[in-house]
Amino acid sequence: MVEAYPLQWPNRPRKATRRRATFGTVKGYGKAPLTVAEAVERLSGELARLGARYVVISSNVELRRDGLPRSGQKEPADPGVAVYFQLAGKPHCLPCDTFDRVADNMAAIAGHIKAVRAQEAYGVATIAESFAGFVALPPPGAARPWREVMGFSPIHRPGSQEIAERYRRLARDKHPDAGGSQEAMAELNAARDAAMKEGG
């Protein structure tokens, strides 16, 4: 499970240096630095227009009671942001640590989503195709979640009988004698055990 705090960076390289952003909000006669609250609002709006589900905004900013990053804190040493969500049933992650402020990295992700949505209007690629390179990959050696292995949705809580039935059906294809592999069967066995332990 991905945590909103502290930052859960995906299996992608980090930026060696960061720069000051040009993001901001118009206040009075000039442009003021964007606050975390304003950036969260901007990012949440773009994610909603995208149709993203199960959103987690992960950063080194402590959380409000609603689980979102809280404004008015000291800028953390690591201002990176990683947004995890599902799009058309597939997990995605958009990370950004280009800028030296958390709010600006959030705004950059929001701007990226807005640009991708605009590109779809040209008919060259769908949103799903545009985000194909941002599929959330587990860290090397990490086990896939049991729900993913067994094909259960993130919110469904199957009982022990349903887990056993799903296991038997999947084992028919994953077993080495049926054209599967030892690795696939081992993963399925571990997923079944985790599912039973959690709620079966």
Tags for this model:
200 residues, alpha+beta, 2 domains, 3-stranded antiparallel β-sheet, J_dom_sf, J domain-containing protein
Describe the structure concisely for a colleague.
This protein is of the alpha+beta class and 200 residues long. It has helices at residues 36-50, 102-120, 127-130, 146-150, 160-174, 182-198, and strands spanning 25-27, 30-32, 53-59, 81-87, 90-96.
Number of helices: 6
Quote the distance from N terminus to C terminus. 19 Å
Based on Cα principal axes, name the global outline: elongated
**DSSP strand tally:** 5
Average pLDDT reading: 87
Alpha-beta classification = alpha+beta
Region (Disordered): 172-200
Protein name: J domain-containing protein
Organism: Ancylobacter polymorphus
InterPro entries: J_dom_sf
Describe this structure in words.
This is J domain-containing protein. It comes from Ancylobacter polymorphus. Helices cover 38% and strands 14% of the residues. Strand 4 and strand 5 form a beta hairpin. It contains 6 helices and 5 strands; from the N terminus they run ββαβββααααα. With 200 residues, the protein is α+β, with helices and mostly antiparallel strands.
What topology does this entry show?
Blueprint: E1 25-27, E2 30-32, H1 36-50, E3 53-59, E4 81-87, E5 90-96, H2 102-120, H3 127-130, H4 146-150, H5 160-174, H6 182-198
Antiparallel strand pairs: 1-2, 3-4, 4-5
Helix pairs in contact: 1-2, 5-6
Protein name: J domain-containing protein
Region (Disordered): 172-200
Organism: Ancylobacter polymorphus
